[in-house]
Amino acid sequence: MAPKEEDPKKRIRALTKEIKAHNERYYKNNTPTISDKEYDLLFSELKKLEENYPEFVSPNSPTKTVGSDLSSQFSKFKHQVPVLSLENTYNTEELWEWIVKTGEDELYSLEWKIDGASILLYYVDGKLENCVTRGTGGIGDVVTENVKTIKGLPHELKSGRTVTVRGEIYMNFSDFEEFNEEYGGRFANPRNLSAGSIKQKDPAEVAKRPLRIFVYDAIFGKGRKGITEHKEILKLLKEDKFPLAPDTEIIPTKQLLQHIEAFRKKKDKTGFPVDGLVIKLNSLEKRESLGETSQSPRWARAFKFDALLKDTVIEDIDFAIGRTGKITPRAKVTPTILAGTTVTYATLHNQDYINELGAGIGAKVLISKRGEIIPAVEKVISPPTQGVFQLPTECPSCKTHLEKVDDSVDFFCTNRHCPEREKNSLIFFCAKKQMNIENIGEKQIEIFYEQGLAKNLVQLYSLHKKREELLAMNRFAEKSVDNILSAIEKSKEKDFRLTLPSLGLNEAGHKVTEILIENGLDSWDKLVALAKKKNAEEELSNLHGIGPRTVQALLGHLKDKETLTLVKNLIKLGLKFKADETEKSNLQPFIDQSWCVTGSFENFQPREKALDIITKHGGRKVSSVSSKTTHLLYGPGAGSKLEKAEELGITLVNEEEFLSLLKKEGIPH
Q: At which positions is NAD(+) bound (predicted)?
């Protein structure tokens, strides 16, 4: 029998290994498999064991370090002040114990804990020099160009301050749903998408994603300069036009519990993901006196809202097959009321997730609504009766062999004519955010498809020829049939701004379509003609907001025989694959001009605002300087683009000259 003293040693090793694995999933892979509360219970157990048995503590124990999101593809930056995590509390009793230790007669800041990606913004003499992830807490990844694409983030401060600003990059629920729909539902929740977006290799790809940022704290260079309270920091950040987290309050202790309850009641109405509140001392002097542990400040706590979890049983597992071919396993569960709605299905994401949970038919599980959107299986309480579920190797709909695409964790059906893919493509095309064809929804598409009346877009737009067949089915009244046919006909009035993104082609969504139109590529014919050019890749790459992945995808579509045939037939049927001539402004001073921008500007933050004015009034925007660029708008911090423009003899315009031009032409800015 092993000596008793070996038991804590084994448990410490096991907990250390388990917590490190969870850190890897959360910080690097953005795929957590346990709740914050479950993680904290493991962490607390390890902490207590290490206190009682210090001789068994590993020098790399997770209690001595913070989780790391470092990636090998980015350069590294040493944080000037360690970036710590917050200790979590889950009830008011725990919170009050901390308040008593910290100061019952103090003022506290109360703010949302936004569920996004942490970022540090380093400004030197007012200029944004570096944007850095939290990383290990001591060293982070430099993601400056990616973060600079986020609208509303000042690139230069009027105050000229040297300051380090802490913020959270996030995505609104509505933006996430729209973006995720456009990309075939491949993203699990807003947090994962936000965290993954700032680690993209190409800033142009990041610019297409609807990222936002809130800032909530700052450290000023050369000491605090007389700043004694957190509310003064917030005031200075506001003066420098930073987007502050909404609803932040500075309140006395006696009002804290009342205000926490008020926050809890409105958390589902914020429009962005929150997973609790941050409570911190207002007095900076008091903060300094309390100090920090190796992991967290003693002067702040995170008050976490318990995720609403319900237990249920997995009765069966089936699959959702999206229009892109992505296979998503879904647990059919015993109907359960969760967050006010009855849940009958919960996502299992992918095979890796199923394996991690040990999920299968017959398992008793906990389900939640992830990010308040998608019901998901979170934990297995009792094991499955039929073993851990394994995905089939063939598509459940068409029996095509399933494949992983581009190192994805997901499996895909690559058969374009898979019935489920075809049906979902039709549903996507008709949806409100796409062609918005009234009177046609999932139910109608299902009937058309199963009856062989409309299995693709060409057949959908030929449905008027089958009016008698529709009536003979006795599924639709005559008025309903006529309304459907009328709506299909009316949809032909929609132009290229909707017809192209509604096709559901990869990397050809609404934002990319607008960029193409803004740059004169306002019809399918023009795109096809461009794709035939030898320098097509270079021309597309020069368009501001179009990255390498998008370029390759677009050129692939424009050379694909099946896609070309589809669009050709849709045009014959009367659909518009050309942008309508909109009522153009009489002010077109930038007509036939191609503008590039470099440096920072006082009146245009972000600088893309200047480019938007140019495109609105006839010009084109490009992302790099070439012989075809006619003008370069430059400001302080201009680099190689300015040098290249001078070499090529391109017209150089500074901010003052640009403002004068706008004034002369009567263009507001």
A: 36-40, 85-86, 111, 134, 168, 280, 304
Q: How many CA atoms lie within 13 A of 75 on its CB side?
A: 6
Closest by alpha carbon to 522, among 503, 539, 499?
Answer: 499
Same domain for 224 and 81 = yes
Binding residues for Zn(2+): 395, 398, 413, 418
Please tell me the pTM assigned to this model: 0.58
| Binding site feature residues | 36-40, 85-86, 111, 134, 168, 280, 304, 395, 398, 413, 418
Domain that holds residue 526: 496-572
Binding-site residues for NAD(+): 36-40, 85-86, 111, 134, 168, 280, 304
> Using CA atoms, how far apart are residues 604 and 155, in angstroms rounded to an integer?
9
72: which residues sit within 8 A by CB, 6+ positions away? none
Asked if 9 is an active-site residue, the reply is: no
Banded pLDDT at 5 (limits 50, 70, 90): very low
Catalytic residue among 28, 76, 78, 113: 113
- Tell me, yes or no, whether 598 and 469 share the same domain: no
pLDDT in tens, 109-159: 999 999 999 999 999 999 999 999 998 888 889 999 999 989 889 999 989
The answer to whether residue 70 is domain-embedded is no
Q: Are residues 370 and 437 in the same domain?
A: no
Residue 557 sits at the vertex; the CA angle it makes with 554 and 561, to the nearest 5 degrees, is 160
pLDDT in tens, 356-385: 899 999 999 999 875 456 788 988 999 999
The mean pLDDT of the chain is 87
Predicted confidence (pLDDT) per residue in 210-264, tens digit: 899 999 999 987 555 679 999 999 999 999 999 998 899 999 998 998 999 899 8
